């Protein structure tokens, strides 16, 4: 039984729902069931998706359960210290073989239906009873849990794809790693997740939170004004040097926005000690990262790795927006810290993210309600035929920037969101990675090379 | 009658090795804290190979359904329904060779 990795198709009609010339997005992308199924095929069965942080499964047999799109997946540390990931479904009758969210030192996974038993390497080790063993035509060696097509990690973050044709994880990121390193490589000891995972359900389309984190600091001024007032004692403020420093950058639909004010995000966690820690960290990190990225570590900023993995520098919340149908997501959030950070600093991050970006957190509650209504109103037949406006900052491209990717001036801008939906349209339209990696969202240098 | 199985030096501590003697079903030989243990290479539950399992805390763990058998007594823990205890063959190390009485298996 060989793994079957579904092939991509082409949906040019869906791709046209993103109108680059008018900077508009058709609302059907948020509610239409056929479009949602195409997303599972074109995006979630092809893109590299975040699975876990290495620190969550340090020892052989340590495992966790997650999703790739709607596909239930087990991620397991092997005896040789590599990591494997499989569909959490028995190849016999399809039952889920792992029922718990996470665990340590698993010996294997036994299906509850007929006792088929799989090792942590996914191979079928045996079955119940003495039935198959006496069947001479039964070939145990050919049977196992379906593995992902490719798995790899980048500075502690493990990703996988169901597409054997997908480019390497490094190529999937392109030069966007320059921005990821702000969080993943600002300290020599590397990073880890602390404090477990927080799960919640939000009745919204997965693209609303993804586009929010890819480049919508604009909403903070209105949505989060009262929360900011409560924690900071004042309004959201992008700082005196906003015009000079703030930017948005995008590569292959991945996007980050920042005002480079050093500690604006960290301040919202409410602990002055954390602010001091980040000021020090920023100074120390100048050698590793240079001035711009050192300023970004705790700044007012946000990031999405296409399609559905997001984080906030400074607040240190990392999360995946798992799709659960066009109108629902399962949100899983973790807290990332530097391994070398003092224990009490890790503890403050853990508490701080809980109070701000958890289901009961000050800011998460603000956002969730907006995304739910932004999704639900599109059930209205007439409503969903009205396009949405994504045209802030059309003339802000910073072609002279020395930073990688498509850089735009000012973080109050729809630029990254336009490129996020352009990437979405590329996935809808293209059935191959050559086109996918050389379209409009490709980094400018690569596009120039491809054109020659 | 004691049957010669293999060089005792080939059996490393903490590991289980599958050995076949002509005319007998395969046996598993384990060494734990220096002592040798010889037992049928099939779990008493589903006939799976115990040599494909491993030793953990003084117990043989079946790699298929994770039943655990105490080395020596054969008492079963964490057993699937209907899984009896494991029986061991009498064995000894004679001049660097592992010998065991395989009669009960016949």
TrEMBL record, chain B:
InterPro entries: Rieske_2Fe-2S, Rieske_2Fe-2S_sf. Residues 3-100 form the Rieske domain. PROSITE patterns: RIESKE (PS51296). It holds the Pfam family Rieske. GO terms for molecular function: 2 iron, 2 sulfur cluster binding; metal ion binding. It comes from the Bacteria. Keywords: 2Fe-2S, Iron, Iron-sulfur, Metal-binding. The keyword Transferase does not apply. This is Damage-inducible protein CinA. It comes from Sinorhizobium saheli.
């Amino acid at each position: 039984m060989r793994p079957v990795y579904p092939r991509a198709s082409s949906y040019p009609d869906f791709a046209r729902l993103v109108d680059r010339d008018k900077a508009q997005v058709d609302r059907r992308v948020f509610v239409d069931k056929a479009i949602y199924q195409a997303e599972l095929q074109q995006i979630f069965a092809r893109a590299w998706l975040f699975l876990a942080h290495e620190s969550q499964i340090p020892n052989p047999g340590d495992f966790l359960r997650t999703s790739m799109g709607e596909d239930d997946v087990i991620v397991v540390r092997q005896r040789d210290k590599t990591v494997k990931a499989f569909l959490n479904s028995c190849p016999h009758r399809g039952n889920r073989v792992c029922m718990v969210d996470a665990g340590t030192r698993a010996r294997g996974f036994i299906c509850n239906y007929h006792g088929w038993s799989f090792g942590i390497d996914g191979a079928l080790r045996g079955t119940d009873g003495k039935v198959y063993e006496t069947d001479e035509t039964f070939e145990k060696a050919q049977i196992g849990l379906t593995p992902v097509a490719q798995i790899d990690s980048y500075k502690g973050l493990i990703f996988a794809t169901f597409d054997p044709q997908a480019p390497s994880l490094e190529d999937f990121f392109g030069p966007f790693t320059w921005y990821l390193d702000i969080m993943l490589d600002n300290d020599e000891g590397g990073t880890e997740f602390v404090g477990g995972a927080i799960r919640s359900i939000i009745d919204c389309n997965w693209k609303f939170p993804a586009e929010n984190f890819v480049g919508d600091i604009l909403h903070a001024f209105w949505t989060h004004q009262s929360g900011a007032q409560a924690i900071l004692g004042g309004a959201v403020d992008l700082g005196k040097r906003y015009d000079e420093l703030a930017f948005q950058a995008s590569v292959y639909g991945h996007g980050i926005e920042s005002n480079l004010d050093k500690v604006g995000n960290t301040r919202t966690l409410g602990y002055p000690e954390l602010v001091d820690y980040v000021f020090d960290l920023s100074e120390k990190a100048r050698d590793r990262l240079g001035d711009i990225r050192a300023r970004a570590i705790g700044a007012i900023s946000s990031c999405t790795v296409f399609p559905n993995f997001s984080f906030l520098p400074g607040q240190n919340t990392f999360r995946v927006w798992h799709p659960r149908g066009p109108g629902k997501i399962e949100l899983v959030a973790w807290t990332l810290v530097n391994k070398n950070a003092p224990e009490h600093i890790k503890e403050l991050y853990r508490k701080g993210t809980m109070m701000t970006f958890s289901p009961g957190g000050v800011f998460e509650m603000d956002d969730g309600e907006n995304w739910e209504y932004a999704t639900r109103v599109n059930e209205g037949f007439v409503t969903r035929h009205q396009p949405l406006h994504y045209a802030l900052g059309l003339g802000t491209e910073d072609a002279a920037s020395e930073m990688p990717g498509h850089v735009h001036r000012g973080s109050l801008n729809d630029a990254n969101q336009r490129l996020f939906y352009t990437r979405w349209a590329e996935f809808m339209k293209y059935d191959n990675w050559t086109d996918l990696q050389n379209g409009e969202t490709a980094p400018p240098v690569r596009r120039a090379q491809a054109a020659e | 009658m004691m049957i010669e199985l293999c060089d005792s030096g080939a059996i490393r501590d903490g590991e289980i090795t599958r050995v076949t003697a002509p005319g007998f079903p395969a046996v598993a030989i384990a060494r734990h804290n220096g002592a040798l243990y010889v037992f049928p290479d099939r779990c008493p539950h589903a006939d799976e190979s115990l040599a494909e399992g491993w030793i953990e805390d003084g117990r043989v763990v079946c790699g298929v359904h994770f039943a655990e058998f105490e080395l020596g007594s054969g008492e079963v823990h964490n057993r699937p329904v209907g899984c009896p205890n494991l029986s061991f063959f009498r064995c000894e190390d004679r001049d660097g060779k592992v010998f065991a009485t395989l009669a009960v298996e016949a």
